[in-house]
Every structure is written in C-alpha cells, then in structure tokens.
Specification:
By secondary structure, the chain is an alpha/beta fold. It has one domain: TIM Barrel (Alpha-Beta Barrel). It is built from ten helices and eight strands. It has an eight-stranded parallel sheet, with helices on both faces. Helix 7 packs parallel to helix 8. 46% of the residues are buried.
Length: 263
C-alpha cells in the first residue's frame, strides 16, 4: 500500500475538471491506502473537512491550516481556531495535522510580518492540540528553522523538502519528519538526492503535492495522488532497497504520526 501524505484534491479538480468519485476510484485502483487533503486557506477549510468526511472510508484525511501565501489576518486566524475546535469535538480522527503553514519568501504574496505571525500562531495550535505541523518552507529555511527551534519541541513534517543535507540535519535534530515530493525524481535535483540519502528511513515520508511537481516520467502533466508511486520507485532505487520495504516503512511512519494524534 502507498501513502500520499500531502495533496490538494480541491486544486486538482479546478485544474483538471476531474470528478471526486473518479479521483477516489483511481486511488483504490493504484493501492493508495491514505491520502491527505491539505488546506491552504481559511476559505478552503470547510471544503477539505467535507471532502474527508465523505471519503473517510477510502482513507482520506485532511489538514487545517493557512499557507504563507494566503491571507492570515486576525479574522482568518480566529476562523481557523474556531473551525479547529469544532472538528476536534466531532471528527478528530479525520484531522491529520495543522497546515500547511510556514514561510515563503520566493512568492512573497504576503508580507513577511504576516507570514511569521501566522506561522507562530499555527505552531501553537499544533502544540496545544498535540497535532503535527505540516511545514512549507521556500527560500526561508534559516528563518523558519529558527522559529521552530524557538517553540521546540514541535511535532511536524517538513513538506516537499527542498533543503540540503545540512538543513535536513537541523530539521531531524528538531524531531521533524521529512517528506519528499515528485521533484526528487528530477535529474538535476542533486541537493535533494543527497539529503534524501541522509534522512533515516524512520523519519521519511513521500507525497505528491498534486497537482504540482509531477514526477518523472510524467513531468509536464498535472500531478495526481496516484503518481506518488513513481516517487516511491525512484526512492527505492536511489537508496538501493526493495520497494516493498520502503512502502512498509513509510506506512509505519505515517501510522505512527496518526497514533500519536490520539494520545
């Protein structure tokens, strides 16, 4: 069984006009045991919740959070707080984590001050509710790691990891899991190739971040959750290990995170 620990079904639907039932059917056909619908804005929280509720028997979970490129004023952060309180009382088992949140200095769609405030707010939410933080970092590794360290210990996942071996070590030292997306499979992704060998198997996850970062050999198409299989295949060959062993370890890592959510 495969796991896609980070995907965006809502964005996939907008970009490909695919139907929800067909998306879920394709997951089953490709032996995707779980996929996490990751929220990126206050406006999308209810959609993510309803989607996971409808397809919970098909292994769909969701996250609740605000991306650093999304608006995160007081009203959005308060909406997130209230939404989270409601879900934790009624459907806690559907909720995988808080995020994706973090810092994005590449796009800079929001001012740095807003990004930092939003990130800190969501770190505290994750800590207060014993949930993992789903962390987005782009061109902001140093600042993001400093913030995480300030609030340590923090349970969490470095989503779509883009750092080098040094950054991977810092993240691992903070107790974080590291997740790689389809860009790991790109021939010139030397930094990712190196860091992915450094990460211990017990701290590793794989994802699509669909519809973005489509893996080889399908690069050029819109990414889909079932394409995570190609990233698994690449990682297994890259680490010179059996695909089945990799699948079992990532499944164990994923379920370990879920189990701790219930503590």
């Amino acid at each position: 069984m495969f796991i896609d620990s980070h995907t965006h079904f809502d964005i996939i639907q907008k970009k490909t006009h695919s139907q929800e039932d067909n998306q879920i059917k394709t997951l089953s056909e490709n032996k995707i045991k779980h996929a996490v619908q990751v929220s990126i804005s206050a406006d999308g929280l209810n959609w993510s919740y309803k989607f996971a509720s409808h397809f919970k028997d098909d292994g769909i979970l969701f996250s609740a959070g605000i991306h650093p490129s999304s608006t995160a004023r007081e009203q959005e952060l308060m909406f997130l707080d209230n939404f989270l309180s409601k879900v934790l009382k009624t459907d806690k088992n559907l909720l995988f984590g808080i995020g994706e949140c973090g810092l994005d200095y590449y796009r800079m769609k929001q001012k740095k001050e807003m990004q930092i405030k939003s990130f800190q707010h969501q770190i505290l939410l994750a800590k207060n509710h014993n949930l993992p933080l789903i962390i987005h970092i782009r061109d902001a590794m140093e600042d993001a790691l400093k913030i995480i360290k300030r609030y340590s210990p923090v349970r969490g996942i470095m989503h779509c990891f883009s750092g080098n071996k040094k950054s991977a070590k810092e993240a691992l030292d903070l107790g974080l899991y590291i997740s790689y997306a389809g860009n790991l499979t790109y021939k010139k992704a030397f930094k990712l190739h190196e860091s992915s060998l450094y990460v211990p198997l017990k701290r590793l996850l794989l994802e699509t971040d669909a519809p973005f970062l489509t893996p080889e050999p399908l690069r050029g198409k819109k990414n889909r959750p079932e394409y995570v299989i190609h990233t698994y295949n690449f990682m297994a060959k890259h680490r010179k290990m059996q695909l089945q062993q990799l699948k079992e370890q990532i499944y164990e890592n994923f379920t370990t995170i879920l189990t701790k959510n219930q503590d």
